[in-house]
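Posting for a labmate who doesn't have an account.
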Amino acid sequence: MKQKIAICLIFALLMTFLCACNGVDIGASAEGSTVETGNGGEPENNNTPAVGEGSGDNDMGIKQTGLTEAVPAAYTKAAAEQGSVVRLDYESEDYVRDGAAITKTAYVYTPYGYDENDTETRYNILYLMHGWGGRAGEYFDFTATKNMFDNLIANGDIPPIIIVSATFYNENSSTDFSSSIEEFRAFHQDFENHLMPAVEGKYHTYAESTSPEDLKASRDHRAFGGFSLGSVTTWLQFCYDYDYIHYFLPMSGSCWYYGTYGDFRFKDNVDFIEQLVKNENLDERGYFIYHAVGTEDAVKSQSINMADEMLSRDIFTPDHYVFYQKDGGYHDFNAVQEYLYNALPLFFRDAE
């Protein structure tokens, strides 16, 4: 009996995050139909925060909780003015194992009109992280999502932006679940010491140089988001790299600074975040978290429980934290596209 239970638990865990590495190109369907995934193994939680009944509007004119708006069909079509995606290889270290020198890869989107010879024009930058078993460049593999970035810029919903689709894996990584946890827990070191300097030393962001001081000074022009285990990575980026990043987009996942899958320790993690905000004067310095999940997401309960704990604290005002859900949304890239569509127009409003 114990062996059967163990097998069931392992199978449930695998199904929970399967879609993070088996996405379907939602741009391939003329109707843009939703691709559903398995129900996963995490128990459902019906204690959903009251949708649309948060603690009032924030400075950006939205409620603290609510439902996301659907992506207009036109935004998933090819734009007349299209950005470009290129591969960027960079040198890093194997932080999980022996610290050996390694080469890692990221893919970089530059908006239409980007000119490498124009050193006067500066761009905000968004880093994105995949889920379990994912890969660098994954966000640009979905045609509709790439088209949406182009159309958001072309229609003036967001300013021209550089977007980086990175990975917490490297050439030595195993992609099994426990190894993946080790990799994303160490990713902030790669981000600080290698990825960010490699990207922003080449592309024209607001960082005057790649020194830690200049990267920190440009934090208002930098965002980080991720889906599934990439969402967990995003929360850890807040915990470790708040000096470098102002805007955060965790999509379907909670903070695992303390605990891990199945041992989420919501109160301990929110206690840590609250103390961090106080200790580092982040209310004054500014930060914004757009937290999102689908109402039919197989692992929605960890996001909902995290949101419940965040919303119970007065310190997390609507100007700093909002929680939105996709009605009928599953744990898939259709939902991710909608979260990006809703969140990105709210980013970089504090940038000067």
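Reply:
Got it, the structure tokens are right above this. The first helix runs from residue 2 to 16.
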